[in-house]
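Final report, Chapter 2: Outcomes

The project's central promise was a pipeline that accepts a single protein chain and returns its three-dimensional structure in a standardized token representation, suitable for archiving and comparison. That pipeline is now operational. To close this chapter, we reproduce one record exactly as it appears in the project archive, with the input sequence first and the structure output second.
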Amino acid sequence: MSGKIYVSQFKDVSFSDARRFSEEIIFLTDKEFRPTNPLEKNNKIAEGIRRDFSSFDPKKDYIILNGNPITIGYVFHLAMEHSKTFRILKWANEQRKYDVMVFDPFDLKLF
């Protein structure tokens, strides 16, 4: 376990199973992008996410896409800026655990 886990948005969800992959979990935001927010508030949320995600290493780290679809899309966009291939921890409801999914736009794999 050498990498970190970046969670797009903190919600009232247990991430205990994710600790199988790393003890270090970074929650990128607990705020919501909203069309009713003043522009500067949405920009501040985006800046915080970008700052906290800046040390993301696609070879070692994982992403959990959770929360608001706008936040999920923004974190996915930032991940694609780092690399076209990265690891996502996807929740498997039936097994009640996280599975690793390597995102590669040309070859999606579940491990």
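Archive annotation: The chain has a mean pLDDT of 90.
This record, like all others produced under the grant, will remain available to the consortium after the project formally closes.
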